[in-house]
TrEMBL record:
Pathway in which the depicted protein is active: Nucleotide-sugar biosynthesis; UDP-alpha-D-glucuronate biosynthesis; UDP-alpha-D-glucuronate from UDP-alpha-D-glucose: step 1/1
Catalytic activity: UDP-alpha-D-glucose + 2 NAD(+) + H2O = UDP-alpha-D-glucuronate + 2 NADH + 3 H(+)
Protein known as: UDP-glucose 6-dehydrogenase
EC number: 1.1.1.22
Alphabetical keyword list: NAD, Oxidoreductase
Upper lineage: Bacteria, Pseudomonadati, Pseudomonadota, Gammaproteobacteria, Lysobacterales
Family: Belongs to the UDP-glucose/GDP-mannose dehydrogenase family.
Organism encoding this protein: Dyella acidiphila
Family matches, as InterPro entries: 6-PGluconate_DH-like_C_sf, NAD(P)-bd_dom_sf, UDP-Glc/GDP-Man, UDP-Glc/GDP-Man_DH_C, UDP-Glc/GDP-Man_DH_C_sf, UDP-Glc/GDP-Man_DH_dimer, UDP-Glc/GDP-Man_DH_N, UDPglc_DH_bac
Length: 440
């Protein structure tokens, strides 16, 4: 099938690469000329396991191309995927300017039937706005052409994006138009082996499903983070509690890890946007507001623990920080807990040496004007003369470090672990003062 993907960011590239892998003829379009130039010269702008290989293979096979030509993009696919960003507005609601610009671009250039697929995460009612934008462009051109707008939210996780796209838990299609539904069913047939996992519903239900999924997952995390605090007060261990409740098949183990807060380009923005959608309808989402509040507090916890561990002041102290990405296997630092931790430490007069296996280029870009943070190419070297080691991301390589070497490097053997990587008893036996989340 001929497919155009509008937006060659995280979701656009994964979508384009995975659709071409199954034999579709895919054109990825982006208004960012430097990004397309990079892709056309064999580069891949994001770190995602398996993505570069997939892109290179399908480009070589002639099934995947990149372009900045809006007219060529609109002409290419009968399916036009919109996968552009929906960042938060100043008030927290999703900013639709990129989505509507993409819709208008289709309307300006299309010359035959198109199925326009909203893959971006968009608030309830956006499919109607996309429809109106395309219809408006067609009217301005004085032409009448058929098109259908379908909602097809994306549920991939960064770091496991290819696998999530290739073997999805479900594919959600919001449409009531049989022709469009059949095209989508044919496109996704190789990926969705269990037909019950191809869920067709109204566009509005599909749009809300995406926010509901992310909000539910964020709720589980904040719930556990709040209980972790209670565990600290009461002498319970949040890890034991996680195992105790996760073994109930109605609850399950996923997304119950307490830590230094959820980040990334999705949970914080989508929780905010859903709260905003509800308030636009005169409804207050009280549970979700608490989820956000708990998460905001959680991101400040590591600096608070560091301050308490170092006698009540951070001024003049130096810290090693392991982990900058918002989670492992990505270089993405959007809304990462590390950013709040760094901000808190610097604000109180401390300095930081940070290490991350893949996010250091991104961090150097973010902190290019900041003298009080430096970077080390080795986790051990980052610990040199630090008053404590802080851990913000659970990269695999942090799980079994050389504790003796860490102790030699640190000024004081203090570890403040925002991801509960080590056994508190074992690490204390090694001579460390160890602070984690919700454990003793
Ligand atoms: N990143 C994720 O893990 C993830 C997962 C599921 C859903 N989503 C959602 O998917 C959407 C895209 O997210 P992302 O992380 O890929 O964003 P991104 O910021 O990585 O990429 C967006 C791309 O769209 C391009 N763009 C903007 N306007 C354009 C236009 N008019 N025409 C062509 N290209 C245009 C930008 O130049 C950019 O390259 C968002 O709504 C996001 O919430 C993201
Ligand atoms: O038990 C847990 C699980 C996750 N996290 C944190 O939650 C954040 C988000 O993690 P994750 O969901 O794995 O990453 P994303 O790539 O942001 O993926 C989420 O957001 C995407 C964009 O909408 C969705 O498509 C995915 O289904 C959804 O999982 C990260 O900071 C994690 O450290 C925890 O603190 N505890």
């Amino acid at each position: 099938m001929k497919v155009t993907v509008i937006g060659s960011g995280y979701v656009g590239l994964v979508t384009g690469a995975c659709l071409s892998e199954m034999g579709n003829d895919v054109l990825c379009f982006d208004v960012d000329h430097s990004k397309i130039a990079l892709l056309n010269s064999g580069g891949v702008p994001i770190h995602e396991p398996g993505l570069a290989e997939l892109i290179h293979r399908n480009v070589a096979a002639g099934r995947l191309r990149f372009s900045t030509e809006a007219a060529a993009a609109a002409a290419h696919g009968v399916l036009q995927f919109i996968a552009v960003g929906t960042p938060p507005d100043e008030d927290g609601s999703a900013d639709l300017k990129y989505v509507l610009a993409a819709a208008r671009s289709i309307g300006q250039h299309m010359s035959e039937y198109k199925v326009v697929v909203d893959k971006s995460t968009v608030p309830v009612g956006t499919a109607d706005k996309v429809s109106a934008a395309i219809a408006d462009e067609l009217a301005q051109r004085g032409v009448e052409l058929p098109f259908t707008v379908v909602s097809n939210p994306e549920f991939l996780k960064e770091g496991a994006a290819i696998e999530d796209f290739m073997s999805p838990d479900r594919v959600v299609i919001g449409s009531e138009e049989p022709r469009a539904i059949e095209l989508m069913r044919a496109l996704y047939a190789p990926y969705v082996r269990n037909h019950e996992r191809f869920l067709v519903m109204s566009t509005r239900s599909a749009e809300l499903t995406k926010y509901a999924a992310n909000s539910m997952l964020a709720t589980r995390i904040s719930f556990m983070n709040e209980l972790a605090e209670l565990a600290e007060h009461t002498g319970a261990d949040i890890e034991s509690v996680r195992l105790g409740i996760g073994s109930d098949s109605r609850i399950g183990y996923s997304f119950l890890y307490a830590g230094c807060g959820y980040g990334g380009s999705c949970f914080p923005k989508d929780v905010k946007a859903l709260i905003k959608t509800a308030s636009g309808h005169g409804q207050s989402l009280r549970v979700l507001s608490a989820v956000e509040e708990v998460n905001n507090r959680q991101k400040h916890l590591l600096a608070k623990k560091a301050k308490a561990a170092l006698g009540g002041t951070l001024s003049g102290k130096h810290f090693a920080l392991w982990g900058l990405a918002f989670k492992p296997n990505t270089d993405d630092m959007r809304e990462a807990a590390s950013r709040e931790i760094i901000a808190d430490l610097l604000a109180e007069g401390a300095t930081v040496t940070a290490y991350d296996p893949v996010a250091m280029d991104e961090a150097r870009r973010i902190y290019q004007d900041e003298q009080r943070i430096s970077f080390s190419n080795h986790p051990l070297a980052a610990c040199q003369d630090a008053d404590a080691l802080l851990i913000a991301t659970e990269w695999k390589e942090f799980r079994n470090p050389d504790f003796d070497a860490i102790k030699d490097k640190l000024r004081q053997p203090i570890i403040i672990d925002g991801r509960n990587l080590y056994s508190p008893a074992a690490i204390r036996q090694q001579g460390f003062t160890y602070h984690s989340i919700g454990r003793h």
